[in-house]
Amino acid sequence: MEVGGEEVGGGGGEGEVTLRYERDLVHKLKLLRHELSLQQPQAGHCRIEVSRDEIFEESYRQIMKMRPKDLKKRLMVKFRGEEGLDYGGVAR
């Protein structure tokens, strides 16, 4: 007998419940890998320019105006009035 997608009874012992899965492990792994590949960072950079005095407020305002897909890009922050070379971190 089938109840809510599960096969109940009909097994070897009395009261035994046999679960029937719609997806096997291999299919679940393929689906997981596909979903993870869709979440990979986008090409390009997400650039914002802020002052050190109001770093939180300005960053928040600029980030809230961005499109969700742009937020998956690498974040680059430039501080207003500070020139530097970026080699993974600012060098002066």
From TrEMBL:
User: The organism sits in which domain of life?
Assistant: Eukaryota
Sorted UniProt keywords: Transferase, Ubl conjugation pathway
The catalytic activity, as recorded, is: S-ubiquitinyl-[E2 ubiquitin-conjugating enzyme]-L-cysteine + [acceptor protein]-L-lysine = [E2 ubiquitin-conjugating enzyme]-L-cysteine + N(6)-ubiquitinyl-[acceptor protein]-L-lysine
Pathway membership of this protein?
Answer: Protein modification; protein ubiquitination
Protein's GO biological process: negative regulation of BMP signaling pathway; proteasome-mediated ubiquitin-dependent protein catabolic process; protein ubiquitination
Its taxonomic placement starts with: Eukaryota, Metazoa, Chordata, Craniata, Vertebrata
| Name of this chain's protein | HECT-type E3 ubiquitin transferase
Against InterPro entries, the record matches this protein to: E3_ubiq-protein_ligase (IPR050409), HECT_dom (IPR000569), Hect_E3_ubiquitin_ligase (IPR035983)
- Any idea of its EC number? 2.3.2.26
